[in-house]
Amino acid sequence: MKWTQATGLLATCGLIAAGGVWAGCSNGDNGNDGGTDSGGNDVQQNKDTGGGDSSPNDSGGGDASDGGGINVDASALDCNYYCDSIIAACAGTNNQYLDKATCVSMCGSIPNDAGAGAQSGDSLACRMYHLSVAAQSSANAATHCPHAGPYGYGVCGSLCNDFCEQYFASGSPCKTDVVNGYLTADACRTYCNGAAGADAAAGAPGNAQTAPSMLCREYHLENAYKADGTGGGHCDHAGGDGGGVCN
Q1: Beta carbons within 8 Å of 82's beta carbon, 6+ residues apart
Q2: Residue 128 carries which DSSP code?
Q3: Half-sphere exposure of residue 181, counting CA atoms within 13 Å on the CB side?
Q4: What integer pLDDT is reported at residue 162 of this predicted model?
């Protein structure tokens, strides 16, 4: 995977000729902290069924709160560019990552073997396509940010497979936590596809701290990635028993 620094793109307003996307300019900040979690209350937000895009060329107007106003080149299959773009376009209630560093760490486990423009399948290319659509408007962001995030939500991969792949990735701090976690990736998928996955509709994993759901476990897995490689206690919360937080 090529790792290059994207420069100047997120501050640029204009027309992307290749994608036909009109965008303005805006900024977003999720304000989450990746330290050991206190288990404070938070609600799941903006759940989505993960359905496909019925209007990929929507020219909806920009909204400074989230999405709309960010130029995103869907052909740029690069983790730094992807993370800069998704942090800016999927902010607030559409937040998919806690911060850029967490995104970059998790991006290394996303397959990068599909050509630019792929609209489905577990790949960085698919996520970049849906991110380019999400950036067109706040309405698009609510639908497509989950597709562009780490878990794919049935469009750019499946929630359970992507969650478990991230949990057991080589760079994951949770892969050896077999006491409160999962014995294997297959055991993780079996658990996720059972009762815990029943309410796992697409949402904003960067915001959900508590509740018995996979969305909560996704949030704490991201916190585990963020906690300087130690997990910061979040691997337990992302595990099958919820660690007293996600159960």
Answers
A1: 76, 103, 107, 124, 127, 128, 131
A2: H
A3: 26
A4: 93
Q: With contact defined as beta carbons under 8 Å apart, do 96 and 90 qualify?
A: yes
pLDDT at 179: 67
Q: How is 11-59 classified by DSSP, letter by letter?
A: T--EEETTTTEEE-----------SS-----------B-----S-TT--
Residue position matching structure tokens 């929507």: 58
User: What is the rounded distance in angstroms from the CA atom of residue 57 to the CA atom of residue 35?
Assistant: 39
pLDDT at 131: 97
Assign residue 152 a region: left if phi > 0, alpha if psi is -120 to 50, beta otherwise? left
> What are the residue ranges in the chain where pLDDT is below 70?
1-69, 179-180, 195-203, 228-229
- The predicted model scores a pTM of 0.70
pLDDT of residue 9: 31
Reported as type and span, the H/E element at residue 214 is helix 214-226
